[in-house]
Amino acid sequence: MSARAAAGRPKPAAPLVLVSNRGPVTFHEDGEVRRGTGGLVTALTGLASHREAVWIASAMSEHDIEVADANGGGSFAVRAPGGGEYRVRFVASDPEAYDRFYNVFANPMLWFIQHYLWDLSNAPDIRREEVEAFEFGYNAVNEDLAAAVIEEIAELAQPVVMVHDYHLYTLPRMVREARPDAFLHHFVHIPWTQPDAWRVLPSRITEEIFAGVLSNDIVGFHTRSYRRNFLQCCRDLMDLEVDFEAGVVSFDGREVWVRAYPLPIDHVATARIAEGERVGQLEGELLRRRRDFLILRVDRADLSKNVLRGFSAFDMFLEQHPEFVERVTFMAQLMPSRTDVPQYAEYLERIEALVAVVNHRHGTPDWMPIQLKLRDDLEEAMAAYRHYDVLLVNAMFDGMNLVAKEGPIVNVRDGVCILSENTGAHEELSEHALSVNPFDIQELANSIHAALSMPAAERARRAAGLRAIVTSRDPGDWIDDQLADIAAKRAGGR
Ligand code: G6P
């Protein structure tokens, strides 16, 4: 959100209280401050620095804990890399509880359910370990964060608490019990899957999760389809009264509104980062080495992102179109993620192995078809965004996918976006992207060919279309829509 746009917006009376697992920054050795990664942090960073807000999050490193202790466990101001100042409050949970919360229950259990990632004939096995991870890990961390929220809102009349994501489904009920007057708004940044996907969980756990989420006043999703799935779950799994048209669930004598708020990116800030000095240097290096065409993907190394099928499709494309040999590079910048979860560690190994196979099969002494960069470097991603001919976003399922929005803002070559129809971004961008079924490798290979052979005028038309949509809104609008609904619900509307 631009400062100018933010200045024109009415400020809510009391400070907003945001709560999420990952906060905007993590502290490292020698006081180094790094920005948190992922869509959630990207979404909320502008909001927290432009509104009066306190952002409560889990301490992620031992240095975060030290900083939290130095501030007596309360909130403190932090200047983030890339600009912006936030009030942050870090909450340190017991390490064993946190491990069960993060590495067993939230990831993979919930994440896999909410991206249809379980290979059901093999996994998951629900044993004591998983059930206890919910009771003594997930719920324990939710309790710790809830306690911080309750303390933070102690002096506020009718506070507004904005809860974020799948890590915190049971927190709202805890806050609701302590503060029935609080307005609780929960935004889920990942897909909400259809009822049967939830049936892997023991019903007692499912019921606790839904009772938690339905303790909010408003529940928000990125798309209309996740909203519909959630409503269907409330009816089919919980046997609740649901008004699909209005998006209202009756629970515990209250009405819960269920809404879709597609998240825009902060396109002004994105463009500013892309203008940075180091980005310019990295662009120079990239241009010196570039072939005729550059295909790019930028993702967390997450199973939902469908990295392997992307490489298989590239392999097939080179097989079927040998005229492109030595003329195209596929650059994959993947940030290692959740590496203590066995499925993620194994995924990284599979990625490296497949890259080796494809490079061996098609490479020549002075050409490596796939360039794999396993690191988290925003500026390097920006330099590559500038010069791609094809941006590949082929996630199997993805809540929104912000790469599909960032790339077109930064790119200067009228690059084509290949976009999975199962991303949240597809609801907004499909008209100007090349849509693909993420499981159809041949279709993806064909799309790579279509994108690389597309006439310049069509590329320009599509790129302009994408830019127009992405720049039409910013995260300030997103939050304003949510605040407007909060005001409407408070006023007794429907
Ligand atoms: C997604 C989730 C976020 C999460 C992020 C990074 O964007 O919606 O809640 O923070 O991925 O994942 P991590 O496990 O590193 O926090």
Global structural class: alpha/beta
The second-level CATH architecture of the largest domain is 3-Layer(aba) Sandwich
Distance between the termini: 29 Å
CATH topology of the largest domain: Rossmann fold
State the name of the first-level CATH class of the largest domain: Alpha Beta
Query: Beta-sheet strand percentage?
Result: 15-25%
Rounded to the nearest angstrom, the radius of gyration is 23 Å
What does this structure look like?
This protein is of the alpha/beta class. It has two domains: 11-264 and 475-490, Rossmann fold, CATH 3.40.50.2000; 267-470, Glycogen Phosphorylase B (Rossmann fold). 45% of the residues lie in helices and 18% in strands. The chain has 18 helices and 18 strands. It has helices at 3-7, 39-50, 62-70, 95-113, 128-152, 171-178, 203-213, 224-236, 267-274, 277-289, 307-320, 342-362, 378-387, 403-410, 426-429, 441-452, 456-471, 475-490, and strands spanning 16-20, 25-27, 33-35, 53-58, 76-79, 85-91, 160-164, 183-187, 218-221, 241-243, 248-251, 254-260, 293-300, 328-335, 370-373, 390-393, 416-420, 434-436. It has a ten-stranded mixed sheet, sandwiched between helices. It is globular. Residues 1-8 have low confidence and may be disordered. Bound molecules: 6-O-phosphono-alpha-D-glucopyranose. The site of 6-O-phosphono-alpha-D-glucopyranose (G6P) has 10 residues, from helix 2.
